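Pasting as-is:
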Amino acid sequence: MLKLFPKPRGHQVAFAAVSTPEKALSLFELASNRCASALTGFELMARMAFDFTVRHTEGARDPLAEKYPWYTLIDISTSDSQQSADTMMEALLEEAFEQGLVEDAVITKSQGEIDALWHMRNTMSEAQKPEGGSIKHDVSVPVSAIPAFLHTADAAVMEAIPGARICAFGHLGDGNIHYNISQPEGADKAAFVGRWGEINGIVHAIVLAHQGSISAEHGIGRLKRDELAEIREPIEIELMHRIKRVFDPAGIMNPDKVLKADPR
């Protein structure tokens, strides 16, 4: 069944600074309660990721006068009017300021400003490249566990690699975090990237401890294929093989990606 929705007539985006992931989570909960289905996006970004983006993305700039540890991008779409979207966003931020959730914020005034904010968010991964080696994680945890995951993972990574620059960002609304780690300044890129498996192991163990998934939106592929077999029960892997045999009895469809060659 296909369900269609009317094209939004009102669209508003806000860029809001928060002091902690806990405040970001509370802000998301407030936005969900106040905006319901009109809340069409809620992104979380660490300062390091934002710094890299401003530094290396053409045309990017910090819309706020001061620097803050964390940022959120709030996207609202309404079916009635632009004024309704503006009013809803203004009321949300007013209440967020009253509750002490937001440190500072800006509301867009044009489609160009909306596009510019989303462009900064969408180029965060690319903006890491000029900073050297990067060990990436596409993970998810329950939304309520995001602050605990971030604090625990940050501490573990910094203990393993002092000086590592953690660039965490992602879709707070569905628990998907791109937990990327850039090499310490001046570090040897090859040596840093050579620790990929070790650092993946540390981060993924924390993800699993929070009942999360080691792969969110980018899939398993070859990179996580062997790890999938280690963290899933044998019967689960066998069921995957059985399903694949039904649709691909000759084993010619994208072989050796999510699953190793069929043992049978």
